[in-house]
Amino acid sequence: MLVPTPTDIILPDMKDLPFYEVVLEKGEDEAHLVTGNLKHFPAKPFIVTAREFLDILNGNKYDTLNS
Known about the structure:
Elements: H1 17-26, E1 33-34, E2 47-48, H2 50-57
Parallel strand pairs: 1-2
């Protein structure tokens, strides 16, 4: 079981914080946070929409910071 390290970050919806902390603990290169609410999280390449994640799974490079 993965137990995330608490962070000092404040998100617009603090109920999202556990998901963000798990991705940070797992490692940005190894995990993605898939969300329909990109505005609820900081702009990071590992935070993606469902469409972007499907592109990643299909091997397509997707520039999440410039989408």
